[in-house]
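Sample 1 of the test manifest.
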Amino acid sequence: MATVASTTTTTDRLSSFNPATGELIATVPILTPAEVDAAVVRARTAAASWSHLSFEARTEELISFRKALAAHADELADLIHRENGKPELEALVEVMMALGHVQHAAARAETAMEPRRVSAGMLANFRATISYHPLGVVGVIGPWNYPLYTPMGSIAYALAAGNAVVWKPSELTPLVAVRVAEIARETFALPDLLQVVTGAGTTGAALAKSAVDKIAFTGSAGTGKRVMIAAAERLTPVLLELGGKDPMIVAEDADVEKAAEACVYGALTNAGQACISVERVYVAEAVHDRFVEEVVKNVRQLKTGGDDGHLGAMTSPAQVAIVRDHLDDAVAKGAVVHTGGAAAISGNYIQPTVLTNVDHHMKVMHDETFGPIIPIKRVGSLDEAVRLANDTIYGLGSSVFAGKAARTIADKLRAGMTSINSVMGFAGIPSLPFGGIGDSGFGRIHGDEGIREFTRIKSTAEQVMSIPLNMMSFRQPKDMPKRLRGMIKQLYGQGVVAKATDLFRKLRS
Ligand code: NDP
Protein backbone atom coordinates (compact mmCIF):
# COMPACT_ATOMS: atom_id res chain seq x y z
CA MET A 1 0.00 0.00 0.00
CA ALA A 2 0.96 3.49 -0.85
CA THR A 3 3.87 5.83 -0.60
CA VAL A 4 4.43 8.19 2.26
CA ALA A 5 6.88 10.98 2.78
CA SER A 6 10.40 9.49 2.30
CA THR A 7 10.97 6.01 3.64
CA THR A 8 14.61 5.29 2.96
CA THR A 9 15.90 4.94 6.52
CA THR A 10 12.76 3.50 8.03
CA THR A 11 13.08 0.02 9.44
CA ASP A 12 9.93 -0.41 11.52
CA ARG A 13 6.42 -0.79 10.19
CA LEU A 14 3.04 -0.14 11.71
CA SER A 15 0.12 -2.52 11.18
CA SER A 16 -3.42 -1.32 10.61
CA PHE A 17 -6.09 -3.79 11.72
CA ASN A 18 -9.83 -3.99 11.13
CA PRO A 19 -11.34 -3.62 14.62
CA ALA A 20 -14.48 -5.52 13.55
CA THR A 21 -12.65 -8.64 12.38
CA GLY A 22 -9.10 -8.35 13.70
CA GLU A 23 -7.89 -8.75 10.09
CA LEU A 24 -4.57 -7.07 9.18
CA ILE A 25 -5.38 -4.56 6.44
CA ALA A 26 -1.90 -3.24 5.60
CA THR A 27 1.30 -1.94 7.10
CA VAL A 28 2.88 1.50 6.80
CA PRO A 29 6.33 2.76 7.73
CA ILE A 30 7.05 4.32 11.11
CA LEU A 31 8.90 7.47 10.15
CA THR A 32 11.83 8.62 12.22
CA PRO A 33 12.25 12.20 13.48
CA ALA A 34 14.84 12.78 10.74
CA GLU A 35 12.33 11.70 8.10
CA VAL A 36 9.69 13.96 9.60
CA ASP A 37 12.14 16.87 9.47
CA ALA A 38 12.95 16.06 5.84
CA ALA A 39 9.22 16.11 4.98
CA VAL A 40 8.94 19.53 6.61
CA VAL A 41 11.90 20.81 4.55
CA ARG A 42 10.25 19.58 1.34
CA ALA A 43 6.95 21.11 2.42
CA ARG A 44 8.66 24.46 2.94
CA THR A 45 9.86 24.48 -0.66
CA ALA A 46 6.34 23.65 -1.83
CA ALA A 47 4.90 26.34 0.44
CA ALA A 48 7.15 28.99 -1.10
CA SER A 49 5.62 28.37 -4.54
CA TRP A 50 2.06 27.72 -3.34
CA SER A 51 1.92 30.91 -1.28
CA HIS A 52 2.84 33.00 -4.33
CA LEU A 53 0.01 31.66 -6.46
CA SER A 54 -3.10 33.80 -6.82
CA PHE A 55 -6.20 32.81 -4.86
CA GLU A 56 -7.80 31.89 -8.15
CA ALA A 57 -4.98 29.51 -9.06
CA ARG A 58 -5.03 27.87 -5.61
CA THR A 59 -8.80 27.55 -5.75
CA GLU A 60 -8.57 25.83 -9.14
CA GLU A 61 -6.14 23.25 -7.72
CA LEU A 62 -8.23 22.74 -4.59
CA ILE A 63 -11.29 22.15 -6.74
CA SER A 64 -9.35 19.53 -8.74
CA PHE A 65 -8.30 17.93 -5.42
CA ARG A 66 -11.93 17.90 -4.23
CA LYS A 67 -13.03 16.28 -7.49
CA ALA A 68 -10.27 13.68 -7.27
CA LEU A 69 -11.24 12.82 -3.69
CA ALA A 70 -14.91 12.64 -4.73
CA ALA A 71 -13.97 10.25 -7.53
CA HIS A 72 -12.40 7.99 -4.87
CA ALA A 73 -15.23 8.45 -2.34
CA ASP A 74 -16.14 4.75 -2.22
CA GLU A 75 -12.55 3.67 -1.79
CA LEU A 76 -11.93 6.23 0.97
CA ALA A 77 -15.17 5.30 2.74
CA ASP A 78 -14.24 1.63 2.54
CA LEU A 79 -10.84 2.33 4.12
CA ILE A 80 -12.47 4.36 6.91
CA HIS A 81 -15.03 1.58 7.43
CA ARG A 82 -12.35 -1.09 7.66
CA GLU A 83 -9.81 0.79 9.77
CA ASN A 84 -12.14 2.60 12.13
CA GLY A 85 -14.97 0.07 12.37
CA LYS A 86 -17.82 2.49 11.63
CA PRO A 87 -20.64 1.36 9.31
CA GLU A 88 -20.16 2.09 5.62
CA LEU A 89 -22.99 4.64 5.63
CA GLU A 90 -21.31 6.67 8.37
CA ALA A 91 -17.99 6.42 6.52
CA LEU A 92 -19.63 7.84 3.39
CA VAL A 93 -21.14 10.68 5.44
CA GLU A 94 -17.65 11.39 6.77
CA VAL A 95 -16.21 11.57 3.23
CA MET A 96 -19.03 13.88 2.15
CA MET A 97 -18.50 16.22 5.10
CA ALA A 98 -14.74 16.32 4.50
CA LEU A 99 -15.37 17.26 0.85
CA GLY A 100 -17.71 20.01 2.01
CA HIS A 101 -14.80 21.57 3.89
CA VAL A 102 -12.45 21.40 0.92
CA GLN A 103 -15.11 23.16 -1.14
CA HIS A 104 -15.90 25.75 1.52
CA ALA A 105 -12.29 26.58 2.36
CA ALA A 106 -11.40 27.03 -1.31
CA ALA A 107 -14.42 29.25 -1.89
CA ARG A 108 -13.90 31.48 1.15
CA ALA A 109 -10.12 31.93 1.37
CA GLU A 110 -9.88 35.12 -0.69
CA THR A 111 -12.70 36.84 1.19
CA ALA A 112 -11.51 35.67 4.62
CA MET A 113 -8.00 36.92 3.91
CA GLU A 114 -8.98 40.17 2.26
CA PRO A 115 -6.98 43.08 3.69
CA ARG A 116 -9.12 45.36 5.89
CA ARG A 117 -8.90 49.12 6.33
CA VAL A 118 -9.42 50.12 9.95
CA SER A 119 -9.70 53.49 11.64
CA ALA A 120 -6.37 55.17 12.21
CA GLY A 121 -7.76 56.97 15.26
CA MET A 122 -5.99 60.17 16.14
CA LEU A 123 -3.30 59.43 13.54
CA ALA A 124 -5.69 60.67 10.89
CA ASN A 125 -2.87 61.20 8.40
CA PHE A 126 -2.29 57.40 8.28
CA ARG A 127 -3.94 54.61 6.32
CA ALA A 128 -4.25 51.60 8.67
CA THR A 129 -4.59 48.12 7.16
CA ILE A 130 -4.79 44.58 8.51
CA SER A 131 -3.68 41.88 6.09
CA TYR A 132 -3.43 38.09 6.33
CA HIS A 133 -0.54 36.01 5.00
CA PRO A 134 0.19 32.27 4.86
CA LEU A 135 2.26 30.87 7.73
CA GLY A 136 4.38 28.47 5.65
CA VAL A 137 4.14 24.85 6.78
CA VAL A 138 1.35 23.55 9.00
CA GLY A 139 1.70 20.27 10.89
CA VAL A 140 -1.63 18.48 11.32
CA ILE A 141 -1.96 15.68 13.90
CA GLY A 142 -5.25 13.82 13.65
CA PRO A 143 -7.28 11.32 15.68
CA TRP A 144 -8.76 7.94 14.73
CA ASN A 145 -12.45 8.60 15.31
CA TYR A 146 -13.01 10.72 12.19
CA PRO A 147 -9.76 9.97 10.38
CA LEU A 148 -10.65 12.02 7.28
CA TYR A 149 -13.25 14.63 8.29
CA THR A 150 -11.44 15.89 11.38
CA PRO A 151 -7.96 16.46 9.95
CA MET A 152 -9.50 17.84 6.73
CA GLY A 153 -11.05 20.57 8.91
CA SER A 154 -7.48 21.84 9.34
CA ILE A 155 -5.82 20.63 6.11
CA ALA A 156 -8.30 22.20 3.67
CA TYR A 157 -8.24 25.54 5.48
CA ALA A 158 -4.44 25.57 5.83
CA LEU A 159 -3.99 24.80 2.13
CA ALA A 160 -6.61 27.36 1.08
CA ALA A 161 -4.78 29.97 3.15
CA GLY A 162 -1.62 29.30 1.12
CA ASN A 163 0.29 26.86 3.35
CA ALA A 164 1.79 23.43 2.76
CA VAL A 165 0.77 20.64 5.14
CA VAL A 166 2.52 17.69 6.80
CA TRP A 167 -0.09 15.36 8.27
CA LYS A 168 0.45 12.74 10.96
CA PRO A 169 -2.58 10.42 11.15
CA SER A 170 -3.40 8.25 14.15
CA GLU A 171 -1.56 4.95 14.24
CA LEU A 172 -4.99 3.26 14.33
CA THR A 173 -6.13 4.77 11.04
CA PRO A 174 -3.13 5.63 8.84
CA LEU A 175 -4.33 4.13 5.55
CA VAL A 176 -6.97 6.67 4.64
CA ALA A 177 -4.39 9.43 5.15
CA VAL A 178 -1.84 7.64 2.99
CA ARG A 179 -4.42 7.30 0.20
CA VAL A 180 -5.39 10.97 0.44
CA ALA A 181 -1.72 11.94 0.21
CA GLU A 182 -1.36 9.82 -2.93
CA ILE A 183 -4.37 11.53 -4.48
CA ALA A 184 -2.92 14.92 -3.49
CA ARG A 185 0.43 14.04 -5.04
CA GLU A 186 -1.30 13.13 -8.31
CA THR A 187 -3.50 16.23 -8.28
CA PHE A 188 -1.48 19.21 -7.07
CA ALA A 189 1.24 20.61 -9.31
CA LEU A 190 3.49 20.62 -6.22
CA PRO A 191 3.90 17.00 -5.15
CA ASP A 192 5.05 17.89 -1.63
CA LEU A 193 2.19 20.27 -0.86
CA LEU A 194 0.36 17.72 1.28
CA GLN A 195 2.51 14.94 2.75
CA VAL A 196 1.67 12.25 5.24
CA VAL A 197 4.10 11.03 7.90
CA THR A 198 2.96 7.74 9.37
CA GLY A 199 3.96 6.28 12.69
CA ALA A 200 2.98 6.16 16.33
CA GLY A 201 3.08 8.82 19.04
CA THR A 202 6.83 9.34 18.56
CA THR A 203 6.26 10.44 14.97
CA GLY A 204 3.61 12.89 16.17
CA ALA A 205 6.00 14.14 18.85
CA ALA A 206 8.69 14.65 16.17
CA LEU A 207 6.27 16.71 14.08
CA ALA A 208 5.36 18.83 17.13
CA LYS A 209 9.07 19.54 17.67
CA SER A 210 9.88 20.11 13.99
CA ALA A 211 10.30 23.44 12.21
CA VAL A 212 6.64 23.75 11.20
CA ASP A 213 5.03 27.17 11.58
CA LYS A 214 1.94 25.91 13.38
CA ILE A 215 0.62 22.65 14.79
CA ALA A 216 -3.07 21.84 14.45
CA PHE A 217 -3.72 18.99 16.85
CA THR A 218 -6.91 16.99 17.35
CA GLY A 219 -6.96 14.38 20.07
CA SER A 220 -7.16 13.96 23.80
CA ALA A 221 -6.42 16.73 26.30
CA GLY A 222 -3.49 14.73 27.73
CA THR A 223 -1.73 14.41 24.38
CA GLY A 224 -2.66 18.00 23.51
CA LYS A 225 -0.72 19.20 26.55
CA ARG A 226 2.30 17.11 25.50
CA VAL A 227 2.12 18.59 22.00
CA MET A 228 1.97 22.11 23.43
CA ILE A 229 5.01 21.46 25.61
CA ALA A 230 6.97 20.06 22.65
CA ALA A 231 5.94 22.99 20.44
CA ALA A 232 7.02 25.45 23.13
CA GLU A 233 10.67 24.62 22.43
CA ARG A 234 10.46 26.60 19.19
CA LEU A 235 7.54 28.78 20.30
CA THR A 236 5.50 27.14 17.54
CA PRO A 237 1.87 28.23 17.87
CA VAL A 238 -0.67 25.47 18.43
CA LEU A 239 -4.33 24.96 17.70
CA LEU A 240 -5.83 22.35 20.02
CA GLU A 241 -9.11 20.57 19.26
CA LEU A 242 -9.50 18.28 22.24
CA GLY A 243 -12.16 16.16 23.87
CA GLY A 244 -15.52 17.07 25.29
CA LYS A 245 -18.31 16.10 27.67
CA ASP A 246 -21.13 17.67 25.74
CA PRO A 247 -24.36 18.28 27.62
CA MET A 248 -27.86 18.25 26.19
CA ILE A 249 -30.70 20.08 27.93
CA VAL A 250 -34.34 19.15 27.40
CA ALA A 251 -36.80 21.72 28.73
CA GLU A 252 -40.40 21.13 29.76
CA ASP A 253 -41.76 22.72 26.57
CA ALA A 254 -39.44 20.80 24.20
CA ASP A 255 -40.75 18.50 21.48
CA VAL A 256 -39.92 15.35 23.45
CA GLU A 257 -40.11 12.93 20.54
CA LYS A 258 -37.78 15.01 18.37
CA ALA A 259 -35.43 15.58 21.29
CA ALA A 260 -35.23 11.85 22.02
CA GLU A 261 -34.60 10.96 18.38
CA ALA A 262 -31.84 13.58 18.14
CA CYS A 263 -30.35 12.53 21.46
CA VAL A 264 -30.04 8.92 20.33
CA TYR A 265 -28.28 9.98 17.15
CA GLY A 266 -26.06 12.51 18.88
CA ALA A 267 -24.96 10.04 21.54
CA LEU A 268 -24.60 6.96 19.36
CA THR A 269 -23.36 8.04 15.96
CA ASN A 270 -19.87 6.60 15.36
CA ALA A 271 -20.65 4.38 18.39
CA GLY A 272 -20.35 7.46 20.58
CA GLN A 273 -16.74 8.07 19.52
CA ALA A 274 -17.20 11.70 18.52
CA CYS A 275 -15.69 14.64 20.33
CA ILE A 276 -19.10 16.34 20.06
CA SER A 277 -21.15 13.30 21.10
CA VAL A 278 -24.03 13.93 23.47
CA GLU A 279 -22.33 12.61 26.62
CA ARG A 280 -24.91 13.59 29.28
CA VAL A 281 -28.53 14.68 29.22
CA TYR A 282 -30.42 16.91 31.67
CA VAL A 283 -34.20 16.64 31.38
CA ALA A 284 -36.89 18.73 33.04
CA GLU A 285 -38.81 16.81 35.71
CA ALA A 286 -42.15 17.19 33.89
CA VAL A 287 -40.97 15.37 30.73
CA HIS A 288 -38.22 13.16 32.13
CA ASP A 289 -40.08 9.85 32.17
CA ARG A 290 -41.61 10.37 28.74
CA PHE A 291 -38.19 11.33 27.34
CA VAL A 292 -36.51 8.24 28.81
CA GLU A 293 -39.27 6.05 27.42
CA GLU A 294 -38.81 7.56 23.94
CA VAL A 295 -35.02 7.23 24.06
CA VAL A 296 -35.25 3.59 25.12
CA LYS A 297 -37.80 2.92 22.35
CA ASN A 298 -35.45 4.48 19.76
CA VAL A 299 -32.41 2.63 21.06
CA ARG A 300 -34.20 -0.74 20.95
CA GLN A 301 -34.67 -0.27 17.21
CA LEU A 302 -30.93 -0.02 16.57
CA LYS A 303 -28.67 -2.81 15.45
CA THR A 304 -25.04 -3.17 16.51
CA GLY A 305 -22.63 -4.87 14.10
CA GLY A 306 -23.25 -6.51 10.74
CA ASP A 307 -23.33 -4.89 7.30
CA ASP A 308 -26.65 -3.17 8.02
CA GLY A 309 -25.81 -2.22 11.63
CA HIS A 310 -26.33 1.31 12.96
CA LEU A 311 -23.39 0.98 15.35
CA GLY A 312 -20.07 -0.49 14.28
CA ALA A 313 -17.17 -1.87 16.24
CA MET A 314 -15.33 0.36 18.67
CA THR A 315 -12.04 1.36 17.08
CA SER A 316 -9.78 0.21 19.89
CA PRO A 317 -9.94 -2.23 22.81
CA ALA A 318 -8.48 0.54 25.00
CA GLN A 319 -11.63 2.61 24.41
CA VAL A 320 -13.84 -0.39 25.21
CA ALA A 321 -12.03 -0.67 28.55
CA ILE A 322 -12.75 3.01 29.36
CA VAL A 323 -16.44 2.59 28.55
CA ARG A 324 -16.66 -0.58 30.68
CA ASP A 325 -14.97 1.24 33.57
CA HIS A 326 -17.48 4.13 33.34
CA LEU A 327 -20.41 1.70 33.28
CA ASP A 328 -19.12 -0.32 36.24
CA ASP A 329 -18.50 2.87 38.20
CA ALA A 330 -21.99 4.24 37.44
CA VAL A 331 -23.79 1.03 38.34
CA ALA A 332 -21.77 0.66 41.57
CA LYS A 333 -22.90 4.17 42.53
CA GLY A 334 -26.59 3.49 41.84
CA ALA A 335 -27.24 4.13 38.12
CA VAL A 336 -30.15 2.22 36.58
CA VAL A 337 -29.43 0.41 33.28
CA HIS A 338 -32.33 0.43 30.78
CA THR A 339 -30.60 -1.10 27.74
CA GLY A 340 -27.15 -2.57 27.08
CA GLY A 341 -24.83 -2.37 30.08
CA ALA A 342 -21.36 -3.76 30.79
CA ALA A 343 -22.62 -7.35 30.57
CA ALA A 344 -23.67 -6.74 26.96
CA ILE A 345 -20.14 -5.80 25.84
CA SER A 346 -18.74 -8.39 23.46
CA GLY A 347 -15.24 -7.93 22.08
CA ASN A 348 -15.11 -4.53 20.36
CA TYR A 349 -18.91 -4.23 20.26
CA ILE A 350 -20.81 -2.26 22.88
CA GLN A 351 -24.60 -2.32 22.88
CA PRO A 352 -26.06 1.18 23.24
CA THR A 353 -26.70 1.77 26.91
CA VAL A 354 -29.27 4.08 28.50
CA LEU A 355 -28.67 5.01 32.14
CA THR A 356 -30.84 6.98 34.56
CA ASN A 357 -30.45 7.89 38.22
CA VAL A 358 -27.02 9.29 37.44
CA ASP A 359 -25.16 12.09 39.21
CA HIS A 360 -21.93 14.04 38.96
CA HIS A 361 -20.05 11.70 41.30
CA MET A 362 -20.01 9.18 38.51
CA LYS A 363 -17.26 9.12 35.87
CA VAL A 364 -19.91 8.81 33.18
CA MET A 365 -21.06 12.35 34.05
CA HIS A 366 -17.70 14.13 34.21
CA ASP A 367 -15.02 12.18 32.28
CA GLU A 368 -15.15 11.77 28.51
CA THR A 369 -16.69 8.32 27.90
CA PHE A 370 -16.35 8.26 24.10
CA GLY A 371 -18.72 5.31 23.76
CA PRO A 372 -22.40 4.53 23.08
CA ILE A 373 -23.75 5.51 26.50
CA ILE A 374 -26.68 7.87 27.22
CA PRO A 375 -26.76 8.96 30.88
CA ILE A 376 -29.97 10.90 31.59
CA LYS A 377 -30.42 13.07 34.67
CA ARG A 378 -33.69 14.54 35.94
CA VAL A 379 -33.48 18.26 36.85
CA GLY A 380 -35.82 20.44 38.90
CA SER A 381 -35.27 23.65 36.94
CA LEU A 382 -33.55 25.06 33.89
CA ASP A 383 -31.14 26.91 36.16
CA GLU A 384 -30.09 23.58 37.65
CA ALA A 385 -29.71 22.13 34.13
CA VAL A 386 -27.46 25.02 33.07
CA ARG A 387 -25.43 24.81 36.30
CA LEU A 388 -24.85 21.07 35.85
CA ALA A 389 -24.18 21.43 32.11
CA ASN A 390 -21.45 23.97 32.93
CA ASP A 391 -20.02 21.81 35.71
CA THR A 392 -17.20 20.44 33.55
CA ILE A 393 -13.58 21.10 32.74
CA TYR A 394 -14.52 20.76 29.05
CA GLY A 395 -16.44 23.18 26.85
CA LEU A 396 -16.78 21.90 23.30
CA GLY A 397 -20.33 21.36 21.98
CA SER A 398 -23.77 21.39 23.63
CA SER A 399 -27.42 21.20 22.65
CA VAL A 400 -30.69 22.62 23.88
CA PHE A 401 -34.20 21.40 23.17
CA ALA A 402 -36.68 24.01 24.35
CA GLY A 403 -39.38 26.41 23.26
CA LYS A 404 -39.13 30.12 23.93
CA ALA A 405 -36.23 29.93 26.38
CA ALA A 406 -33.94 28.00 24.02
CA ARG A 407 -31.78 30.93 22.97
CA THR A 408 -31.42 32.22 26.55
CA ILE A 409 -30.34 28.78 27.77
CA ALA A 410 -27.93 28.41 24.85
CA ASP A 411 -26.29 31.74 25.65
CA LYS A 412 -25.69 30.63 29.25
CA LEU A 413 -23.83 27.47 28.23
CA ARG A 414 -20.08 27.66 28.65
CA ALA A 415 -19.16 25.90 25.42
CA GLY A 416 -17.58 26.68 22.07
CA MET A 417 -20.69 25.59 20.17
CA THR A 418 -24.40 25.04 20.78
CA SER A 419 -27.13 23.48 18.66
CA ILE A 420 -30.72 24.53 19.33
CA ASN A 421 -33.41 21.94 18.67
CA SER A 422 -30.85 19.73 16.91
CA VAL A 423 -27.63 17.95 17.78
CA MET A 424 -24.27 18.59 16.14
CA GLY A 425 -25.83 21.15 13.77
CA PHE A 426 -22.79 23.41 14.13
CA ALA A 427 -20.51 20.68 12.78
CA GLY A 428 -22.49 20.42 9.55
CA ILE A 429 -22.25 24.13 8.73
CA PRO A 430 -18.78 24.82 7.26
CA SER A 431 -19.08 28.57 7.78
CA LEU A 432 -19.37 28.16 11.57
CA PRO A 433 -16.05 28.10 13.42
CA PHE A 434 -15.48 24.86 15.34
CA GLY A 435 -13.62 24.57 18.62
CA GLY A 436 -13.84 24.70 22.35
CA ILE A 437 -12.74 26.27 25.59
CA GLY A 438 -11.17 24.91 28.78
CA ASP A 439 -9.89 21.35 28.43
CA SER A 440 -11.55 21.18 25.00
CA GLY A 441 -8.71 23.33 23.68
CA PHE A 442 -8.44 26.63 21.86
CA GLY A 443 -8.28 28.05 18.38
CA ARG A 444 -10.84 27.45 15.65
CA ILE A 445 -11.10 25.32 12.53
CA HIS A 446 -13.83 25.82 9.87
CA GLY A 447 -15.35 29.12 8.79
CA ASP A 448 -13.45 32.31 8.03
CA GLU A 449 -11.86 32.11 11.50
CA GLY A 450 -10.58 28.65 10.52
CA ILE A 451 -8.87 30.12 7.45
CA ARG A 452 -7.35 33.03 9.37
CA GLU A 453 -6.16 30.53 12.02
CA PHE A 454 -3.56 29.46 9.46
CA THR A 455 -2.36 32.95 8.63
CA ARG A 456 -0.16 35.52 10.26
CA ILE A 457 -1.71 38.90 10.81
CA LYS A 458 0.16 41.91 9.56
CA SER A 459 -0.66 45.46 10.60
CA THR A 460 0.45 48.22 8.26
CA ALA A 461 0.41 51.90 9.14
CA GLU A 462 1.01 53.99 6.03
CA GLN A 463 1.54 57.73 6.41
CA VAL A 464 -0.37 59.28 3.55
CA MET A 465 0.32 62.93 4.31
CA SER A 466 2.48 65.01 6.60
CA ILE A 467 1.00 67.16 9.32
CA PRO A 468 2.70 69.93 11.23
CA LEU A 469 2.54 68.10 14.54
CA ASN A 470 4.54 64.92 14.06
CA MET A 471 4.53 62.93 17.30
CA MET A 472 6.96 60.33 15.97
CA SER A 473 9.90 62.62 15.90
CA PHE A 474 12.33 64.07 18.45
CA ARG A 475 12.03 67.44 16.75
CA GLN A 476 9.22 68.92 18.78
CA PRO A 477 8.25 72.51 19.56
CA LYS A 478 9.23 73.75 23.02
CA ASP A 479 5.62 74.04 24.15
CA MET A 480 4.88 70.38 23.25
CA PRO A 481 4.17 69.29 26.86
CA LYS A 482 1.58 72.05 27.14
CA ARG A 483 0.00 71.05 23.82
CA LEU A 484 -0.10 67.39 24.88
CA ARG A 485 -1.81 68.25 28.18
CA GLY A 486 -4.42 70.14 26.19
CA MET A 487 -4.88 67.25 23.78
CA ILE A 488 -5.30 64.71 26.61
CA LYS A 489 -8.02 66.86 28.15
CA GLN A 490 -9.70 67.51 24.81
CA LEU A 491 -9.63 63.91 23.54
CA TYR A 492 -10.01 61.83 26.69
CA GLY A 493 -10.98 64.06 29.61
CA GLN A 494 -13.65 66.75 29.96
CA GLY A 495 -12.88 68.55 26.69
CA VAL A 496 -15.37 69.29 23.93
CA VAL A 497 -14.07 66.52 21.63
CA ALA A 498 -14.29 63.86 24.40
CA LYS A 499 -17.82 64.97 25.33
CA ALA A 500 -18.94 64.90 21.70
CA THR A 501 -17.50 61.38 21.29
CA ASP A 502 -19.32 60.13 24.40
CA LEU A 503 -22.58 61.71 23.27
CA PHE A 504 -22.25 60.15 19.81
CA ARG A 505 -21.67 56.70 21.41
CA LYS A 506 -24.80 57.14 23.58
CA LEU A 507 -26.93 58.16 20.61
CA ARG A 508 -25.76 55.09 18.66
CA SER A 509 -26.47 52.61 21.44
P1 NDP B 1 -4.79 10.89 21.15
O1 NDP B 1 -4.59 12.12 21.94
O2 NDP B 1 -4.43 9.61 21.73
O3 NDP B 1 -4.02 10.97 19.75
C1 NDP B 1 -4.24 12.01 18.83
C2 NDP B 1 -3.08 12.04 17.86
O4 NDP B 1 -1.90 12.42 18.54
C3 NDP B 1 -2.78 10.69 17.21
O5 NDP B 1 -2.38 10.91 15.87
C4 NDP B 1 -1.64 10.20 18.04
O6 NDP B 1 -0.83 9.27 17.38
C5 NDP B 1 -0.87 11.47 18.26
N1 NDP B 1 0.07 11.43 19.38
C6 NDP B 1 0.16 10.55 20.40
N2 NDP B 1 1.17 10.89 21.23
C7 NDP B 1 1.72 12.01 20.74
C8 NDP B 1 2.77 12.89 21.16
N3 NDP B 1 3.46 12.67 22.27
N4 NDP B 1 3.04 13.97 20.41
C9 NDP B 1 2.32 14.24 19.28
N5 NDP B 1 1.32 13.46 18.83
C10 NDP B 1 1.02 12.36 19.55
O7 NDP B 1 -6.31 10.97 20.74
P2 NDP B 1 -7.14 9.87 19.99
O8 NDP B 1 -6.55 9.55 18.67
O9 NDP B 1 -7.36 8.79 20.98
O10 NDP B 1 -8.51 10.64 19.67
C11 NDP B 1 -9.54 10.70 20.56
C12 NDP B 1 -9.58 12.04 21.23
O11 NDP B 1 -9.66 13.07 20.26
C13 NDP B 1 -10.80 12.22 22.08
O12 NDP B 1 -10.48 12.79 23.32
C14 NDP B 1 -11.68 13.16 21.27
O13 NDP B 1 -12.59 13.87 22.01
C15 NDP B 1 -10.67 13.99 20.60
N6 NDP B 1 -11.23 14.59 19.40
C16 NDP B 1 -11.45 15.93 19.38
C17 NDP B 1 -12.03 16.53 18.29
C18 NDP B 1 -12.22 18.00 18.24
O14 NDP B 1 -12.37 18.53 17.15
N7 NDP B 1 -12.22 18.71 19.34
C19 NDP B 1 -12.42 15.75 17.11
C20 NDP B 1 -12.13 14.35 17.22
C21 NDP B 1 -11.54 13.81 18.35
P3 NDP B 1 -1.03 7.69 17.61
O15 NDP B 1 -2.48 7.41 17.42
O16 NDP B 1 -0.19 7.16 16.56
O17 NDP B 1 -0.59 7.43 19.02
